[in-house]
TrEMBL record:
<keyword id="KW-0472">Membrane</keyword>
<feature type="domain" description="Protein FecR C-terminal">
    <location>
        <begin position="320"/>
        <end position="389"/>
    </location>
</feature>
<dbReference type="Pfam" id="PF04773">
    <property type="entry name" value="FecR"/>
</dbReference>
<dbReference type="InterPro" id="IPR006860">
    <property type="entry name" value="FecR"/>
</dbReference>
<dbReference type="InterPro" id="IPR012373">
    <property type="entry name" value="Ferrdict_sens_TM"/>
</dbReference>
<keyword id="KW-0812">Transmembrane</keyword>
<keyword id="KW-1133">Transmembrane helix</keyword>
<protein>
    <submittedName>
        <fullName>Ferric-dicitrate binding protein FerR (Iron transport regulator)</fullName>
    </submittedName>
</protein>
<feature type="transmembrane region" description="Helical">
    <location>
        <begin position="88"/>
        <end position="108"/>
    </location>
</feature>
<dbReference type="GO" id="GO:0016989">
    <property type="term" value="F:sigma factor antagonist activity"/>
</dbReference>
<dbReference type="Pfam" id="PF16344">
    <property type="entry name" value="FecR_C"/>
</dbReference>
<dbReference type="InterPro" id="IPR032508">
    <property type="entry name" value="FecR_C"/>
</dbReference>
<feature type="domain" description="FecR protein">
    <location>
        <begin position="183"/>
        <end position="275"/>
    </location>
</feature>
Length: 391
């Protein structure tokens, strides 16, 4: 999901720029600046307002009165100063808004040690690829890709193969203690795992699956965080359960998609077969038929079943994006995971714009953003690996 910038630090920088820091606030800002060399570098860059604002090409286009109102709102500034000083604040506000875009770009993304910062061209942001991290019960951690075939000892006496199909576990039934592996797919990644019963799970970016190296004789349980598409092997004697967030999904040999990435809802879409869904602490099971979406509202604890076109929900598995009247916020959340970028909206109202389109998942991000911009009239800029959405 998209990360959010540290609003409190940005507010302190706002107040510093207008000369309205209290003693306590000044101490906190100085502590933050001294914590890390990157903080000091950011602070100096923000203070060089003309150069920074010019990078975004919006320095001359900011309405001073509008900008000042936004500064008051975001910084919680009390209008208790004299008229002369307020005039100066409004002047400074004209550069503060573009500066905050830059600040957010740094706060949004935590720079990884040794990571190389890419250029500012949108085309330089490449799509995701097959990669994952395998965590074993003995605390070993293995980074895996599909570049070459390898074998791993995933438990005592059990070796799995990693090849062009992803991770493939040998078919067998556990007779002793159940050992679990965890397959973690980072942002900008995707991966596939074939479990010991023949079930195939496709994992999307920013997802994690915990599963037994070999299922027992009575039931099959896996645990999902993020988004996964399941093709479950039929086995009448051993029911298959997907535990996702607060839900338990009982599978009757089928293909379906589960997505827990949305903050408000858990989405389960059935392509074929039959599934039953219930809350972890409830005996009520909701039946879902092919072509239906089960929408579980986390806050309200309610379940809604509706008929849908399933293609937009599972298009990612076929290397496509299908946006069907989706909000720009939802779209950018999806793109942030796949392209491993962070997103900052200059104006909150832009999040509610909607877009419909069918786009290639492996295209450069510039092609995707150009298509969205052509329909919604929004503009996109980039700072490092942060995409900025502007009016």
């Amino acid at each position: 999901m998209m990360k959010h910038y540290d609003e409190y630090i940005i507010q302190l920088i706002q107040l510093y720029l207008v000369g309205d820091l209290s003693g306590e606030e000044k101490v906190k800002l100085e502590e933050w600046v001294s914590q890390d060399p990157s903080h000091e570098k950011l602070f100096k860059e923000i203070c060089d307002e003309k150069n920074v604002a010019h990078d975004f090409g919006i320095y001359e286009n900011v309405n001073k009165d509008s900008a000042w109102e936004k500064v008051i709102l975001k910084g919680n500034i009390k209008q208790k100063h004299n008229t002369r000083r307020l005039g100066w604040y409004k002047f400074v506000a004209a550069v503060m808004i573009p500066l905050l875009v830059v600040a957010a770009g740094y706060f949004i993304r935590e720079t990884k040690p040794g990571a190389k910062q890419k250029g500012s061209e949108l085309a330089s942001i490449e799509p995701g690829k097959s990669k994952a991290i395998l965590r074993l019960a003995d605390n070993r951690v293995i980074e895996i890709t599909r570049e070459q075939e390898t074998r791993f000892d995933v438990a005592e006496g059990i070796a799995a193969t990693n090849n062009s199909l992803g991770m493939v576990y040998p078919e067998q039934v556990a007779t002793g203690k159940t050992e679990y592996n965890v397959l973690e797919v980072p942002r900008g990644g995707e991966y596939t795992v074939t479990l010991s019963d023949g079930t195939v799970v496709y994992l999307n970016s920013g997802s994690e699956l915990r599963y037994p190296v070999a299922f027992g004789a009575e039931r099959r349980d896996v645990f999902l965080s993020g988004e996964g598409y399941f093709e479950v092997a039929k086995d009448a004697k051993r029911p298959f359960f997907v535990n996702a967030d607060k839900l338990k999904i009982r599978v009757y040999g089928t293909s379906f998609n589960v997505n827990t990435c949305n903050l408000a809802n858990v989405e389960t879409v059935l392509v074929e077969g039959k599934i039953g869904i219930q809350e972890t602490n409830s005996d009520i099971e909701y039946s879902v038929m092919p072509g239906q979406l089960a929408l579980y509202n986390r806050e309200k604890g309610t379940m809604e079943i509706r008929d849908v076109d399933v293609r937009p929900y599972v298009a990612w598995k076929e290397h496509e994006f299908m946006f069907d009247n989706e909000s720009l916020e939802e779209i950018m959340n999806t793109l942030s995971l796949w392209y491993d970028v962070d997103v900052f909206f200059q104006t909150a109202s832009l999040k509610q714009l909607h877009f419909t389109g069918h786009l290639g998942r492996y295209e450069e991000v510039s092609h995707i953003l150009d298509a969205i911009s052509g329909v919604t009239q929004v503009k996109f800029s980039v700072k490092g690996r942060t995409i900025i959405v502007m009016e």
